[in-house]
Design a protein that fits this description.
Rossmann fold, 17% strand, single chain, alpha/beta, 4 domains
C-alpha cells in the first residue's frame, strides 16, 4: 500500500552563504556552453558530475556538506568560482536593456545593430524539441540540436527571443541493443525538480496553468522555465493532477504514441504555447515555427486579433500571417504530419466555434492541393499558408522545397515559389572540443568566440604550428578511444558478457589509427549500410597493416521504424565478423554526450544519404569546426560547403530517386566511397614527413577551418534570420496594424475587389514581330492587348516569360520580364516588350497576368493568373 501523503515539499540544497550563487549558475544553461562553467561543477565532484550525467542541479542536491565546506577552504576553487561569476555577470549584463552601455566591456550584436531601430521587437521561437544539454532529454536528433543551438546563439547575440516547446516526462528513449543487435527502447521518467527547470508560478507560489481544447474536454498544462543564457525557454507539461491519465500522457514521450497523441501535442504546442507566453507576460511581435508541428499557433494569433482588435477572419489571417515565419526541414512528403479531417474536427471544432473561427475555412487552409490528400489536413501546407515568410535549411533544400510545395502556389513557376533558404549552422562554443578551443584562444585571439562569422579571424588558423594542431587532434582521438572503450565494455557487461569479452571491449580500437565517424538517425535513406556493401573489400581497407582504419558508429532508429532497426542489427552482426571485430564499434544510446566525443575525436566524418533527401545535416558542421574532414555525398550543407582540398565528395550531383535506380546508385556510390578511401583519404592521412607529421592532412584541416567555420555556424544563421525575417516581419506587422488597422483593412478590401473582378480579365490579342523569321541578337517585339474590366493597370502585373524548350515542349528554365503599359482605353490596356534571343534552337514564349505585388503581398499569394 502506498504512502498516504500529508504534504509534498520541494527540498533545495543547503549552500553556504559564499557559495549561494552556485545554484543560480546551475539553473542557467550558460554553463553548458562555457568550458569554465562545466569545469566549476566538475571540480566539486568529478564522480557525481558523471553519475548525474552532467546535471549541476542534481549534483548540488547530492553533494555531501563536507565537500561544500572543503570547497570554501580551497583558495584555488574559490578564486575560480569568483572568476566564473564575473564572466557570467558580464555576459548577462551585456544583454540587459536597462544596463548602461557606457559601463559595459562588451555589447551584443542586437543592441549594437538593431535594438534602437526596432523598439518593442519580441520573437517567439516554437519547436517540438530542444537539444541543449545531455541531462535535459527534450530532443531526439538534428532538429532538436539545431533548435538548442538557435537559442544559444540568440542569447549570445542578445536577441529578444523566447523559445516555446513541450517538456516530456520520459524524454526520448534510451537505446539498448540485445544480444542479437535488435534495438530496444527504455524510458526513464525525468525528475523535473532535479533539473535546471523552474516552474512558472504566481505570487502564491502555485504553478500557473494554461488550458487548451482537447476534444470535448480541456487539457491543462503547467509551464517550466529554462534560462538559456540571456533568453528564456518555456516548456509545457501536461503531467499534472488536474488532467486524467490520458491527458497526462500527452507529454509523456517525444514522438511517442499514435496520430491522436500527435495532434493533441501539436494543439498544446501551438495554442498552449501562445497562452504560456501570455502567462509569462511576453507579447511577441513575430513568431517562428521550426517545422510545422506548431502550426496551430496561427489560430491562437487570429483569435486574439479578432477579440482584441475587432478584426474579421480574413483581416486577422493577414495580420497573423505577416508576423510569422515557417522553417521546413523536410525534403520528402512522407515526413510531414497529416491528420484525417474527422480528427481535426474533433480537436478544433469546439475551439473554432468558441472563437468565431469558421472551421471550414480553417480546414481549407490546411488542405493539400494534391488529389490523394483531399481528406487530410497537412500541417506543412497550413503553416505555409499562414506564414508570410518561409525557408528551407540549405540552398539545395530550398530548391527541393520549392518543387515539393509548388502546387500550393499554382500560378508560380517552380523557381518563383516563395520559399527561400537559410543554411543551418552549429553553435561553436557548444561543440568545439577543449583542446581545439585552447588552440583557437592562443592563435586566433581570445575574442574569436565572439566573432565566429569573421573570415579574417578564421584565416589566422595558418598561425597554428603544425605540431600543435596535430597534437590537439591526436589528443582528441585518444579521448574518443578511451570513451568508446568504456562505453563498449559497459554495453558488454550489461548483456552479461563474460570477463574475456569485457576485457576485449576495453581494448577495442587504437588511439593512433585513422578513425572514421558515422552517427545519425537510422533512417534508411541515410544508407548506414553503404560502407558495408562489399564486406570483403572493406575488410581489406580496414585491415591493411601499413595503413589501418577503424570506424565508430552511433545512432537510433525511431521506435516504429523496423527497417532502421534492421540496419542496426546488420551492422552489429558485421562488427563481430573476423577482420572487422575491434575495428568497428557501435556506440549505444546516441545523444549529445556521444556526439560531442565523436565530432571532436574522429579524423573523418562520413555522411552518405541518398542525394536530395538530407535537408541540411549539422553533424558534419560540428566535425568541421573541430578540424575533422568531411567525406560526404553532395547533399544538404555539403553541396554548398564542399570545395576540393577541404574534404571529399562521394559521387556527383546526379539525382537517382526512382525505385528501379536505387540499387544501381548505391552500387555506384559505394564504389566511389571505397575508391576515395583507398586512393585519397587513407594515403593522405598516412603520408608523413621526416618529422612524423601528415603535412597535407594538416593543410587540409587549416583550409577546412578557414573556409567553413565562419559560414556554417549559428551566429551567422541567427543574424540572417533576424535581418531577413524577424525584423522585416516585426515592421511589416506593425505597418498593417497602424492607424486603426488601416492597411490590413485596405489589403483585404483590395483582395476582395481583385477576386471579384478577376473573372473579367482576359487577353484579347497578342502580336509577335518577325513573321516566323527569328535570329540570335535580332530584336523581337511582343504586344498584348488586355481586357481588365473593373481593374486598372495599377492592379496587375503583365509579364513576358520565355526560354528554351525541352523534349516535352516545356520551358523548364524560364526568364520573366515585365511588359510596359503603352496605351489604355477604358477597360482595355496595351502592353509591349522588346527582347533579343541569346541563343539558337527551339524557344518558347508566354505572357501572363498576375496581381501586382505590393500591399504586403507577392504576386502569387492570391492564386490568380491569366495566361495568353
Amino acid at each position: 500500500m502506498g504512502i498516504k501523503l500529508l504534504k509534498t515539499m520541494r527540498v533545495r540544497p543547503h549552500l553556504p552563504e559564499r557559495l549561494k550563487r552556485l545554484e543560480e549558475l546551475a539553473y542557467n544553461l550558460w554553463w553548458c556552453w562555457n568550458t569554465e562553467g562545466v569545469e566549476l561543477f566538475r571540480r566539486l565532484s568529478y564522480d557525481l558530475w558523471e553519475e548525474t550525467y552532467h546535471n549541476p542541479v542534481a549534483l548540488l542536491g547530492r553533494l555531501p556538506q563536507e565537500k561544500l565546506n572543503a570547497a570554501l577552504e580551497d583558495d584555488a576553487f574559490m578564486a575560480f568560482y569568483e572568476r566564473v561569476l564575473r564572466h557570467f555577470d558580464g555576459y548577462m549584463q551585456a544583454g540587459n536593456p536597462s544596463a548602461d552601455p557606457e559601463r559595459l566591456v562588451m555589447n551584443t550584436w542586437y543592441r549594437a545593430r538593431a535594438a534602437a531601430e526596432h523598439p518593442g521587437c519580441a520573437i517567439a521561437y516554437f519547436s517540438m524539441e530542444f537539444g541543449l544539454t545531455e541531462s535535459l532529454q527534450s530532443y531526439s536528433d538534428g532538429l532538436g540540436l539545431l533548435a538548442g543551438d538557435h537559442l544559444k546563439s540568440a542569447s549570445d547575440l542578445g536577441l529578444p527571443l523566447t523559445g516555446v516547446g513541450l517538456l516530456y516526462r520520459d524524454g526520448y528513449f534510451r537505446q539498448e541493443l540485445n544480444q542479437d543487435g535488435w534495438q530496444q527502447e527504455t524510458y526513464t521518467p525525468l525528475d523535473f525538480y532535479n533539473l535546471p527547470l523552474q516552474l512558472l508560478a504566481g505570487p502564491d507560489g502555485k504553478a500557473k496553468l494554461v488550458d487548451v481544447p482537447d476534444g470535448k474536454g480541456r487539457l491543462k498544462a503547467q509551464v517550466w522555465k529554462v534560462a538559456v543564457g540571456r533568453v528564456t525557454l518555456l516548456l509545457l507539461d501536461a503531467n499534472i493532477p488536474e488532467n486524467n491519465e490520458g491527458a497526462r500522457a500527452v507529454t509523456a514521450q517525444l514522438y511517442g504514441g499514435d496520430t491522436e497523441t500527435r495532434i493533441r501535442q501539436e494543439v498544446l504546442l501551438g495554442i498552449g504555447g501562445c497562452r504560456a507566453l501570455e502567462l509569462a507576460g511576453i507579447k511577441p511581435t513575430f513568431y517562428h515555427m521550426n517545422e510545422g508541428h506548431s502550426g496551430f499557433l496561427a489560430l491562437e494569433q487570429m483569435h486574439h486579433l479578432m477579440r482584441e482588435q475587432k478584426l474579421g477572419f480574413e483581416e486577422a489571417r493577414q495580420a497573423a500571417q505577416a508576423r510569422t515565419l515557417f522553417t521546413t526541414h523536410t525534403p520528402v512528403p512522407a515526413g510531414i504530419d497529416r491528420f484525417g479531417l474527422p480528427l481535426v474536427e474533433k480537436y478544433l471544432a469546439g475551439y473554432c466555434e468558441a472563437h468565431n473561427l469558421p472551421l471550414a475555412k480553417v480546414i481549407t487552409l490546411g488542405k493539400s492541393p494534391l488529389e490523394n490528400e483531399k481528406n487530410e489536413f497537412n500541417m506543412a501546407v497550413f503553416a505555409l499558408r499562414m506564414s508570410a515568410y518561409r525557408n528551407g535549411v540549405s540552398a539545395l533544400h530550398g530548391v527541393v522545397s520549392r518543387k515539393m510545395f509548388d502546387q500550393v502556389w499554382p500560378s508560380a513557376q517552380v523557381d518563383e515559389v516563395p520559399i527561400g533558404h537559410i543554411t543551418n549552422g552549429v553553435h561553436a562554443r557548444s561543440w568545439v572540443a577543449n583542446e581545439m578551443g585552447a588552440l583557437y584562444d592562443r592563435y586566433l585571439g581570445p575574442g574569436w568566440i565572439s566573432h565566429t562569422v569573421k573570415t579574417d579571424v578564421w584565416r589566422r588558423v595558418e598561425r597554428i604550428p603544425a605540431e600543435e594542431l596535430w597534437r590537439a587532434r591526436e589528443r582528441r582521438r585518444e579521448r574518443l578511444v578511451t570513451f568508446a572503450r568504456r562505453r563498449l565494455a559497459a554495453q558488454v557487461a550489461a548483456k552479461h558478457g563474460v570477463k574475456s569479452e569485457i576485457q576485449a571491449a576495453g581494448e577495442a580500437l587504437r588511439p593512433d589509427v585513422l578513425t572514421i565517424g558515422f552517427a545519425r538517425r537510422f533512417a534508411t535513406y541515410k544508407r548506414a549500410n553503404l560502407l558495408f556493401r562489399d564486406v570483403e573489400r572493406l575488410k581489406r581497407i580496414l585491415g591493411n597493416p601499413a595503413c589501418p582504419v577503424q570506424i565508430l558508429i552511433a545512432g537510433k532508429a525511431h521506435p516504429k521504424d523496423n527497417l532502421g532497426k534492421e540496419l542496426i542489427k546488420q551492422l552489429v552482426h558485421l562488427q563481430r565478423e573476423p577482420g572487422l571485430s575491434g575495428r568497428i564499434v557501435f556506440v549505444e544510446n546516441y545523444d549529445i554526450c556521444v556526439v560531442r566525443y565523436l565530432v571532436g575525436g574522429v579524423d573523418v566524418w562520413l555522411n552518405n544519404p541518398r542525394r536530395l533527401l538530407e535537408a541540411s545535416g549539422t553533424s558534419g558542421m560540428k566535425a568541421a569546426i573541430n578540424g575533422v574532414l568531411n567525406l560526404s555525398v553532395l547533399d544538404g550543407w555539403w553541396d554548398e560547403g564542399y570545395q576540393p582540398g577541404l574534404g571529399w565528395a562521394i559521387g556527383d550531383r546526379s539525382e537517382h530517386l526512382e525505385p528501379n535506380e536505387l540499387d544501381e546508385q548505391d552500387e555506384i556510390d559505394a564504389n566511389a566511397l571505397y575508391d576515395l578511401l583507398e586512393k585519397e583519404v587513407i594515403p593522405t592521412f598516412y603520408q608523413r614527413g621526416a618529422d612524423g607529421l601528415p603535412r597535407e592532412w594538416i593543410a587540409m584541416i587549416k583550409r577546412n577551418l578557414a573556409a567553413l567555420a565562419p559560414v556554417f555556424n549559428t551566429d551567422r544563421m541567427v543574424e540572417e534570420y533576424c535581418t531577413r525575417y524577424y525584423l522585416p516581419g516585426h515592421e511589416r506587422a506593425a505597418r498593417l496594424m497602424a492607424d486603426g488597422q488601416q492597411q490590413v483593412h485596405e489589403l483585404v478590401k483590395w483582395q476582395e475587389r481583385l477576386r471579384g473582378a478577376w473573372k473579367d480579365v482576359a487577353v484579347k490579342q497578342v502580336a509577335v514581330s518577325g513573321d516566323g523569321d527569328y535570329a540570335v541578337a535580332r530584336a523581337t517585339d511582343v504586344t498584348v492587348t488586355l481586357q481588365l474590366g473593373a481593374l486598372t493597370p495599377d492592379d496587375v502585373l503583365v509579364e513576358l516569360c520565355r526560354g528554351p524548350l525541352d523534349t516535352r515542349d516545356e520551358v523548364s528554365q524560364a526568364s520573366t520580364e515585365p511588359m510596359q503599359l503603352v496605351r489604355r482605353d477604358g477597360g482595355t490596356a496595351e502592353y509591349r516588350a522588346a527582347f533579343t534571343f541569346a541563343e539558337s534552337g527551339r524557344q518558347g514564349l508566354g505572357v501572363r497576368i498576375l496581381p501586382r505585388p505590393g500591399r504586403e503581398l507577392n504576386s502569387f499569394e492570391a492564386g490568380l493568373i491569366v495566361w495568353a
